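Final report, Chapter 2: Outcomes

The project's central promise was a pipeline that accepts a single protein chain and returns its three-dimensional structure in a standardized token representation, suitable for archiving and comparison. That pipeline is now operational. To close this chapter, we reproduce one record exactly as it appears in the project archive, with the input sequence first and the structure output second.
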Amino acid sequence: MLRSLAIRNFVVVSVLDVEFAGGFTVLTGETGAGKSILLDALSLLLGDRFEAGQLRPGAERAELAAEFTLDDAPAAQAWLADQDLAPEDGESLLLRRVLDAQGKSRAWINGRTATLAQLAELGALLVAIHGQHAHQTLSEPAAQRALVDGFGGFTVLAREVAARWAAWRAAAERRDAAAQAAQATASERAFLDERRRELTALAVTDDEWAELSAAQSRLANAADLTAAANEGVAALSESDDALGSRLAQVAQRLRGAAAHDPALAEAVALLEPAAIAVDEAARALRDYLRRLDVDPDALRQVEERLSAIHDVARKHRVRPDALPALLAETEARLAALAESADAAALARRAGAAEAAYRDAATQLTKKRQFAAAELAHRVTEAMQTLAMAGGRLEVALVPVREPASHGLEQLELRVATHPKQPLGPLARVASGGELSRIALAIQVVASEAGDVGTLVFDEVDSGIGGAVAATVGSLLQKLAARRQVLCVTHLPQVAAFADTHFRVTKAGDRDAVTSELARLSAGERVDELARMLGGAAVTAKTRAHAKELYELHRRA
């Protein structure tokens, strides 16, 4: 239930703080006084989009806040708990929103920042707003489906049907796409099969190209390598003036001289490892010569292998060392094609998705049939009290030619406004005034079946009057026995049924206009009803009529 609403710098409202009670509350006032501004502010707190023109002229920002009690909103309590936004006391909820001149908006739920999507989700669990033009949307198929699904309480199932339809269509598209691309897939598979055969036969390993290149370089230069190694062995150890022999001689001469001067010992110590290194280098060169392969056939084989690898790499426009990766890529693509080309598997998946959709859609159809009959019955009963005696409403379920995201049928509201009139589409059969009354009956019936704690009716009584208006007031009063009902109205016959009455007035000049809200006492209510009955000229007779109206319809 809405407990309070605070508004700062919104449209023509400068400062407004209002507390609401349960039961039936009406807001009245002259045309243009700003009655609907409160509902606009509430709509923004429930996730509506902000427009720059809603900021009070000259103000830097507007601030809106609303407090709700949660004892009548278990769904909202569960949502807040799931979002980790539950109030500390567990009983009240505070919504706040700030709007600035740049069009930016910030929102909070219980003091924590929130998105507009979160406000809208939570708002749908707290308040249902019925506008004065509701009858215009009732002619739309989507609105009619939403009405029946909401009335029956199976909107979750309707969303599941839509999700399963999307999954079915996606699976069918994959199946059909595979069939259409079968020829192209076959060509690609043939190409990949040939490439895999060629690469598999070549059997290039990851490091083979580098190893073959090194071997080719070695074998091609074997004569130079042999000559260089032999020259090295001779210079180091085998020639008459070999370096190893000369180093040994020098070391021996210095070692003898060091006996006379120990300072030479350091030089001797350095020469000894040099002589050892020369000897080891000579031994390494001799080993290299023994291992060096100068077989011309080996060179030919390496060069042939290099040539084969190079030719295949050039054919497939990759580097020779990338051939192993190309083979792995080819095998992976072939595996993917094999999976996607499994027509039987794709058909099974599409069939399973279709079966899941039809199962949920059939359940939805059965629920809609029951809800449609019950809704039609209740609305028909309400129409009898709204100057449409003998009128009736039917909710027809018309099978669709092709299954759709909304199910296996289209819903159509058909109405007859008097006994002799055949049933026909709502928008074609009813006049403007009748549409308003039918829409009101539907809204009241739908609200009775829902579980939202606060219902708002914004001039839904437009186009009616007299005894019908009194009936509307009675309907809303009865509805308020179970819900909090807020209603903006211009009809005294409706306002007289209210438990609480607020009057909206506008004050100031054209440079600074302000709307104000006042809660009326019993005597003030009579005065306001008299104004609504007689306009500017309120006579004693008009006031007496207003008092009689108030005493007759107020809740005992």
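Archive annotation: The longest strand covers residues 392-404.
This record, like all others produced under the grant, will remain available to the consortium after the project formally closes.
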